[in-house]
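Lab meeting notes turned into a lecture example. A postdoc, R.K., suggested we walk through two folding results consecutively so the class can see how the record format repeats. The first protein's sequence and structure tokens come next.
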Amino acid sequence: MNDLNPQNPNPAPGNQQFSAPAPEYVDDEPLPRRMYFPAIAGLIAGVVIIGPLGIILSILAMRTINKHPDIYFGRGVAIAGIIVSSFASLWQALYIWALIAS
């Protein structure tokens, strides 16, 4: 007997087919989009002068937000994180260079 037979609606417990859960809807409305946390973390890392980490987090956030615009927002925050983190990285490099040169 074939457990995946269309006439058998209840396959054996070991042969269950799994699929992604369906999105949750309330009154036929999709759930609202969410701010993607790594975008915020990248901006904060740039402000706190952890430039390379901020750049990495912000770029990863931009990629994810661009792949899933129906789920996440925060592209502007990710762009701001890249800019602020770039300035922080530049400041860190100049500071280290000044320390070495003196």
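The second example is placed directly after the first for contrast:
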Amino acid sequence: MSRTLCVSQPALVKPAWNRSDVREILDMVDPPVGIIGQFLLLLYSAQTEDEQKDFATVAKNGAGFNSYDAEFLSTLARRARWRLLSPRECECAARQMRKYSRQIADLLNGEMGEMDL
């Protein structure tokens, strides 16, 4: 049996998200794979097209991943797109995405412009 789980797509519907709401999910012992996958895809969608293609961060625009995290989190975001995140990958992603909690909240609230998932 495969150890890979499918990422379900739970609705992230809430009147308004803030940094602490996002941080609460990211700090969970067993973060929900579906929600972490959606957070990854939100941040990934904030990357420029070239950054997505190259798994790197070039533009200093305050959107998406930083240059240190870009390669690893872009890889996980692509796996999330195909619903292939494992629980371990989900835990690692959640740990690394804590620094992006404000950006995730802004994206969820539509405050950084429209992003396609």
